[in-house]
Amino acid sequence: MLKLSQLVASSGLILLGLGSAVANDLYTPLHEAGRCAIRGHCGSKSLFGSQLPCVDNGLAEEPDDKLRQQLVDLCGPKWSSGPVCCQTKQVESLKSSLSTANQIISSCPACKDNFYNLFCTFTCSPDQSLFINVTQMVEKNGKNLTTELDQLVSKEYGTGFYDSCKDVKFGPTNSKAMDLIGGGAKNYTDLLKFLGTERFGGSPFQINFPVDYAEPKMEPRPMVPKKCNDEDPNFRCACIDCPSVCPELPDVVQAGSCHVGVLPCLSFASIFTYSVLLFSFLVAVGGHVAWRRHAKRRSERLRLLTDATPSDDEDEGDLTQNGAMFDRPQKTYVINTWCDAAFSRLGHVAARFPAVTIVSCLLSVLLLSVGWYHFEIEQDPARLWVSPTSAAAEEKAFFDDKFGPFYRAEKIFLVNDLNLSGPAPVLSYDTLIWWMGVEEAVRDLRGPKTNSSFDDLCLKPTGSACVVQSVAAYFQDDPEAVDPDGWEQTLRECAASPVECRPEYGQPLQPNMILGGFPEGSSDPTEAAAMTVTWVLNNNKEGSDEVKRAMDWEQVLKNYLLETVQEQAKDRNLRLSFSTEISLEQELNKSTNTDAKIIVISYIIMFLYASLALGSTTLSFKDFIRNPAISLVESKFTLGVVGILIVLMSITASIGLFSWFGLKATLIIIDVIPFIVLAVGVDNIFLIVHEFERVNISHPDEVVEVRISRALGRMGPSILFSAVTETISFALGAFVGMPAVRNFAVYAAGAVFINAILQVTMFISVLTLNQIRVEDSRADCFPCVQVKSARIHLSGSNGNQGARYYEAPEESLLQQFIRKSYAPRLLGKKVKAAVIIIFLGIFAAAAALLPEVELGLDQRVAIPDDSYLIPYFNDLYDYFEAGPPVYFVTQEFNGTRREDQQKICARYTTCQQMSLTNILEQERKRPDVSYISSTTASWIDDFFQWLNPDNEACCVVNRKPCFAKRDPAWNITMSGMPEGTEFVEYLNKFLKSPTDEDCPLGGQASYGTAVVVDAERDTIPASHFRTSHRPLRSQDDFIKAYASARRIANDVSAQTGLDVFPYSIFYIFFDQYSTIVSLTATLLGSAIGIILIVSALLLGSVLTAAVVTLTVFMAIVDIIGAMAVMGVSLNAVSLVNLIICVGIAVEFCAHIARAFMFPSRTFMERAKNRFRGRDARAWTALANVGGSVFSGITVTKILGVTVLAFTKSKIFEIYYFRVWLALVTFAATHALIFLPVALSLLGGEGYVDPESDGGLEEDLASRRYRALLPDGDSDSEDEY
């Protein structure tokens, strides 16, 4: 902006200084109308200095015709008559200097007129002596050169001048014109002070602007400033430059704005509803108690006349026979009977031909696993969390294709916050000199593989200088320019007027881009606690040689900063944090490697527990003491290991199967799917083994194949129930576009389904072989070794070697506890009431917490705790005072037509009020809502300004302005603007025009890559309008900024009919949050619906299915509520976990629900007299499968989850340990506490269990099993 600064030299306009001054009449003795104070050029102070005006207190003179015409052309028709105090060379110099300012402010006629009027009046007014007083001068070559003067300007004009210009925008630099013409002035006195300060590149002499003046004959000129919203339309500015003429945008109603007081509506509704229900219940209970007492008093005499009987008030009866059996289900359910028969036949085949079954399963798994040859892991976050067909992905692809990939940024923060007293200024003379040496060393770095340097790779908008945003640029990157005593003043001046301290690449560097951490209430750059430096590299398509070269150099930069510069900073008691373009992906991969160890340990513990726990089903401690050899036979460690291997085989087969189809795996799949399949698989293994042991006891004389068939016939439908609901629930995720969720869902559904198939085939065959081994007294793990001493305890019968009733193992302590203590107490009336109240209360609290669940995934969580990126992200949020750039992109915009031009422009009178640029400008004025904070760079406005013939150095053809003699002439109504082929022709010239001091409007640097021109079709396939977000300091800020940009683009499209979308580098990572709430609700809701349908079909009762579905729903809501309490935000990772929660919750509930609907006769008869109807069946379900659910899935998961608490990875600690802990807690308590109670109250009518309906034979088997109970194991009412 050198010419703008030289404006002072040609006109003597610049004013500096506030306060009062004493008149010095030595050089301007006479103050009267028609008399001058300065006139003409008298030379310069030095050889290369600017011309200074002559001291001249003579009379004003009539100009010749040439001067008159020049003056009228430049300053307007009011100068067409009367004498003047200027000469031809002055006017010519003034015109040259004003041309630069004109390019910056000409879009606002009022600002331009006030600016020109001030300069022209000061330079040529015939009454100069009335408002100008020369106070100092030097004599040179016999001439008096003015070196200092005072000028009087009224407050009215100064304020009006400033107000008309303060909001004018300069698009090429995305800044306000005031930053360029006024040094970022905040009021009119600052503006004049900036223009009048004597300095190199600025005013060549000092001009003061006193408020009060002692000379009585002097006073400010009575000039009236034009307003930006002037009544005269010829001076009225456009909306973008004058807020007062802008239409108001409608208010934005933000999501989640419904509140009742301080509570969100959902929270209020949840709390209110529960309170009403609880109050109603308490009133009902109170009324019931009062009625019972009244009834008791009325029947007192009757009681005295009769024998004493047990009170009905107690929650028990005293029937002489087993009342539960009176209510035993009598009907059969066809589907269950079919399933029972089918699984019985399947079990018999698998047990009859174990070798064939096992080999067939192994070959099938092996065949599917061949797909591992095509196995790939997707690690690119952009392709993980965004569907390739989503708007964000398509928009990123469009942007990269048309404008090139976004730049690669290498960024550091240097912070002074290691002092015990708190943050202190980071900059000092020594620090500046040291840092300039660091930057020099960075420029000299070369990649070891490609030998590329920073200069080879950097972004060069002007073609020569690299973009480095650093405080060193304020000192021309030259240590010698840093004055040990004056560097602070230089820094302040550059921060106040960045245009005066531009780096080599030409763009003014705003202080908020390089400094941060100012003390509260201060903006002094010397007090900043942090500085930031950014090296900008060109980017290219992924995998290209250019990207490889950049990554090679970035690796060297990372090592240099990590190993050298951080240590040097520590020596200076400073802290340096940084990030390169390659850093995040590297640290994410490091995090995965760290997590792998913890995950493996977790799974090993679950494997060991499952293997050992299975052996305890038939081996009691008493048996072990009596005959230790029995443990070698009764152990089921091998069986447990095989069960775990089947889990791994199902995972392997699933991954192989879908790898055949090119479905890439994700780290989530590798980490999580074993957890799911283990949860499902181990539970099913426990159920099968436990049921098989019961069959061994009740039918000891039958061959192994028949006993296996009976066990699978009973448990098979239950396994089918859980497997079908889980598989379908997971498979629903396949319809989601987000690859991370979709691929996980497909792999998980496949693994669960394959696991279920292997369990009812291969595991059954292995279980058969294991039982044959046991009955032949052979050692576990070493079946070739026969343990003869075990035969003393395991004597055979009829050569069948089956366990006889008197040899049956004792009930485990867990089973005894559930049967004798837990189940009876849980199903008492008072306990049931308490359970319902407590669980509904927890549900209401969780529902109230749903609005508190935050969205997002903080990068700091996804990387290891000891990563060098953690301090960087902390500093980025704490100290960076600028927001990321955002581009509003037009597609297939036909800019050759006037009506389309008016849809995007803003600086001309015929532009649409709701044009693209006008809407963006209006949104900028409400950054709290729009998250937009900077002026929009509008290429079409600057293009038309570039065509303005007044800007003689811009659009030039044959050394003349392009539109100099155009008809119609260039004007702010756009009537003279080009259209059609001419538009495309001039636009191409504009985009190639260099951006320099002569023509800052040139489009090469600012818009060279912002507009794609199709000359063949005379259209613009793509263009973008650049602005920036306000500083974004949290995940919530990023999510809302993206949502706001999307809203704004939609508004623009609706108002203009153009195809517009927003783009910023971070949008693709936050696109998921625009739909994740609805996606979560849809997925979970669909899964819940599937559970209801499948449950109703397989259980044969809509009521029971509804209870199961309600239980799962309540557990899921409780887990989400716990997420809010535990600080777990909703994102793709937690969404995957919530899908897992649905599947595992079903696994917890399915077996108990089926045992309730098809109660075992053997167990139901043991209910004795206490329970009737649904209570008896609920007791039976708990006694039958409750132990398996607790030991098989609950304990297994608790052990596995506990290990995750020791992970060093925040993402596993937060999104896996916390969520899975909540899952195990809520799923287990709902399945083992709430579900039995709910079934006892609302469950549907039961059916006969086919395995228990065998006539006399089954009755005898049942009696045999009951006879096994020791005397002390009676379930009579006396024990409760």
Q: Care to describe what's here?
A:
The chain has 1280 residues and is α+β, with helices and mostly antiparallel strands. Helices cover 53% and strands 8% of the residues. It is built from 45 helices and 24 strands. A hairpin with a 2-residue loop joins strand 10 and strand 11 (263-264). The longest helix has 34 residues, at 265-298. The termini are far apart. 51% of the residues are buried. Keywords: Cholesterol metabolism, Disulfide bond, Glycoprotein, Lipid metabolism, Lipid transport, Membrane, Signal, Steroid metabolism, Sterol metabolism, Transmembrane, Transmembrane helix, Transport. GO terms for molecular function: lipid transporter activity; sterol binding. It is found in: Endomembrane system.
Overall mean pLDDT: 82
Low-confidence parts: 1-23, 308-321, 793-808, 1253-1268, 1270-1280
Helical fraction equals 40-55%
Task: Please summarize the sheet with the most strands.
Answer: 5 strands, antiparallel
CA-CA gap between termini: 95 Å
Strand content: 5-15%
Radius of gyration: 42 Å
Shape: elongated
Q: Helix segment count? A: 45
Class from secondary-structure proportions = alpha+beta
Number of strands: 24
Family: Belongs to the patched family.
Keywords: Cholesterol metabolism, Disulfide bond, Glycoprotein, Lipid metabolism, Lipid transport, Membrane, Signal, Steroid metabolism, Sterol metabolism, Transmembrane, Transmembrane helix, Transport
InterPro entries: HMGCR/SNAP/NPC1-like_SSD, NPC1-like, NPC1_MLD, NPC1_N, SSD
Pfam families: NPC1_MLD (PF22314), NPC1_N (PF16414), Sterol-sensing (PF12349)
